[in-house]
Amino acid sequence: MTTWKRIRHHLTRKTRRTTGRHGAAALGLACVMVVFTAAPGSAGSGGPPAAPDPYFPLAGNQGYDVDHYDLDLDFTPATDLLVARAAIKAEARRDLTRFTLDFSGPAVERVVVDGRSAAFSRDGQELTIVPAGKIRAGRDFTVTVWYRGTAAPIDDPALGVYGWINTDDGAVALNEPDGARSWYPVNDDVRDKATYTFRITAPAGLTALANGEPQGKPRTVGDRTTAVWSMRKPMSSYLSMVAIGRFTVTDGRVGRLPNITAYDPAGDGDDAALHRTTADAVRWGQERIGRYPFDSTGGIIDRIDVGYALETQARPVYDGEPDEATIVHEIAHQWYGNSVTPKTWADLWLNEGFATYAEWLWQEERGGPTAQSVFDQLWATPANDDFWHLKTADPGRDELFNYNAVYLRGAMALHALRTTIGDRDFFTLLKVWADKYRYDNADTRDLMNLARAISHDNVKPLFDAWLYTAAKPATPQG
Ligand SMILES: [Zn+2]
Questions:
Q1: Short-list 298, 281, 425, CA closest to 362
Q2: What residues are paired with 197 via a beta bridge?
Q3: How far is ligand 1, taken at its centre, from the CA of residue 337, in Å?
Q4: Which element (helix H / strand E) includes 15?
Q5: How many whole angstroms from 333 Cα to the centroid of ligand 1?
């Protein structure tokens, strides 16, 4: 995500804070406990810990692991009606007599598990499903959910507007952090990556885009057109995306990689600049970081007033004409965030610090200010300034997108690491980090261990001072 505008948005929204959130958090823990007591036992050894994300305790279910989402979405902009079917293929990690999906979207009409009707109930964002028979640990199963109605975005007092957003001529779905549940039933845990197929039907004349690559040309039957897209590489649910509306599409290539960009012709966007800069940023990333992790790239400019751009997998979405730095930032996320994804939201700096530092490197290499000069300017911020008042690795749920703590201080921490271990080891680290944890999840400790292994330096004090302390480090090296 790029947040210059987002931060302003975020700050103006702060006045709407209420005390209600604490009540909601307590309720969340209660619901999680219900799920655990209904399905006791451990997830077995080797897997991630069977615990919800501390920032989003209601999201995700550790009792199963999703392999693939097949989403069939029929959308009518004139009425905002969404008629949908989600077929989710998963593997049980323990015996399941019941399980939950995260879903706060339209009315559920029917649920089927492995071809047999299943009982279901809804409570807040939990869709609880009781299959006709117990699903044994280790078994694959498919749950299919039919639903129909109007989907709406999540409007969070601290985090802004995200999820399914109806627009003048269509809709766009931007999920970070927990908005996927607004438009499809999901195991909304950043660690449960899956592949996706999107089958999107809309009135003829509109264009539907999603993550990944198109499967053939769109097909029109009567006055409705269906487009099919697939994401064949593992994807966290917060990075899934669809965009429906009037779009002008440019279908090109960066080397052998398809580069599909689109913009809403009713806006003042310039698709040529988006297309070209996206290609440049991908080439640059391939040189600096290594093999591009997905099977296509691109970008979408839509006229939505959310105040941010989002790095949706293989095809970021921009809420207006992006500048070059913003495109570089979102493309850098394809490696840092989308391919290598944090294990928990507290470690979001691993996305935003790296993507912000990519902007600094990009401009440094093009005769702009050096990363050192950007660092020096920020370092001059007095120790008693709010700039230093949160922990970069664990800023708190409501400060997840805090630009100073997560983005700028995240990038500063990387620069401090660079000056400590030296350019050669640092640029090796940038590549090995993306390669070692490709399509996987990693945390701050994993980065520290890798930096130590590559440099043979004791980087722990630096990590402690820059990432785990809510204060200005004593020296630039920590
Ligand atoms: Zn970002």
A1: 281
A2: 70, 230
A3: 8
A4: none
A5: 7
For residues 164 and 21, the model is more confident at: 164
d(CA 172, CA 302): 8
Q: Which of 234, 297, 301, 295 is nearest to 265 (CA)?
A: 301
How many whole angstroms from 162 Cα to the centroid of ligand 1? 15
Q: List, in sequence order, every beta strand (DSSP E) within 77-206.
A: 81-92, 99-102, 107-113, 116-117, 119-123, 126-130, 140-150, 153-156, 160-166, 171-174, 194-203
Count of beta carbons in the 10 Å neighbourhood of residue 115? 8
What's the CA-to-centroid distance between 296 and ligand 1, angstroms?
19
CA of 219 to the centre of ligand 1 (A): 35
What is the CATH number that goes with domain 4-157+174-190? 2.60.40.1730
The CA 411 to ligand 1 mean position distance, Å, reads 11
Tell me which of 1.10.760.10, 1.10.472.10, 3.30.70.580, 1.10.390.10 is the CATH number of domain 345-467: 1.10.390.10
Question: pLDDT tens digit string along 431-457?
Answer: 999 999 999 999 999 999 999 999 999
pLDDT value at 379 more than 50:
yes
Tell me, in angstroms, the distance from the centre of ligand 1 to residue 236's CA. 15
**Inter-residue contact 294 to 313 (CB < 8 Å):** yes
Angstrom distance (rounded) from CA 347 to CA 290: 23
Cα(308) to ligand 1 centroid in Å equals 9
Ligand 1 centroid distance, CA of 454 (Å): 26
